[in-house]
Amino acid sequence: MQALITRPIEDAGPLAAALAARGVTPVSEPLLAIRPRPAAAVALAGVQAVLFTSANGVRTFGRMAARRDLAVLAVGDAAILPDASPPPASASAVSRSMMPSRSPR
Q: How many Å apart are CA 43 and CA 39, to the nearest integer?
């Protein structure tokens, strides 16, 4: 059996390995390439936490923003990188500590 993997090339490896371990032949044909916008700016004034929805977002934020003192929320295990700093916190833990009144309106 073969399985077509359409994920970006940098994200296809773990899935391809898992499929191969199960006897499935992975066929990688990426349909997208994730690239940050060159002129994008990360505005963090007043931000208490950063919510990541993908490992791509974590990698890009790490390259584009110097701050490492914000609380981190991650949706799904794939958004958590092993070297994340500071370590991710659960949504419930962060919601208990985040105070909307501390953020500028």
A: 12
